[in-house]
Amino acid sequence: MKTPIRVAVTGAAGQISYSLLPRIASGAMFGLDQPVILQLLEVPVEKAMTALEGVAMELDDCAFPLLSGIVLTDDARVAFRDANWCLLVGAKPRGPGMERADLLKENGKIFTTQGQIIDEVSAENACVAVVGNPANTNAMIAASKARRLTADRFSAMVRLDQNRAQTMLAKKAGVATTEVSEIFIFGNHSPTMFPAFGHAKIAGQPVETVITDRAWLEGEFCEKVGKRGAAIIAARGASSATSAANALVDHVRSLATPGAIHSIAVRSDGHYGFDENVWAGMPVKTISSGTYEVVTGIPLDDFAKGKIAATNKELLEERAMVADMLG
Ligand code: NAD
Ligand code: LMR
To answer: In three state form, how does the secondary structure of 167-193 look?
Structure first.
């Protein structure tokens, strides 16, 4: 048996975590031979901590063979101590009529504190994946607090958008989702994101040779991927949870699998026209667990360049709004 890895999860009594934790404990995230210790963080409020105890009781009752231990805490130093992976889910979700940027000031504070503590107490080369919205800018805030961990250890999740785009293309073409490949997300996890259909393939063929309706690709497709989160909030009265948890499983598994090519939001060093030091979605190739290189050379036409300029502008605006939280 391998040595257990420590996985810290924040917001552990929330709705995403309720779907996420059993997937981690069952081996879906790190593999069927990798034991895990879950280090679960909630806010120091009786209701939240009692709910967290209930979550832990249910995990116990699953008798997962790979679950080597569960730590329940309201102390971030305990949750992140020696953690190999820090999954930052805990934050306020938006309600109907709100944009994710509306959460910026309120949720940003969480990531200043947690970024600093993770840097102080987590394992060497810990990986941090941010889900709490606005995820890109929260990852930037957390990374800005780090003195030991390098900025490339901090990523934000755009995999849900990639998965959404994959299914929408499959449905439009009338094929299985497995037939859709190389659909990557550029930019912010917000309606400005760009699902780069020009590069994607269906059954190995360029998307546009199968879906010849360019107006649909530029219009309805991009808009529906960007606004899918709002559509779910409108339908469910709560933001996506199972699909968000599933996307985080995919995000981490791909980031831990050498050779995997997938979309994550990482610190930009200028690729694809993004400003340096914004956290922008782009395709990366995993080199070794937690390390990656940006996939370069994806051709962008004028439409794609315009979409990337718009999402980059929004990322810059978000960065300006939290300038006092950085560094
Ligand atoms: P939720 O309200 O059900 O759960 C959030 C939990 O976080 C709560 O239990 C709360 O007590 C806890 N929490 C708040 N502050 C905390 C802190 N400082 N430390 C530890 N725990 C804390 O919300 P949810 O539906 O699970 O969503 C969580 C976040 O994920 C939201 O910001 C939501 O917008 C975001 N989200 C992101 C994506 C994405 O694709 N990036 C997808 C879905 C949801
Ligand atoms: C999503 O995309 O479903 C989440 O980011 C939740 C939201 O606020 O849209």
So the answer is: HHHHHHHCCCHHHEECCCEEECCCCCC
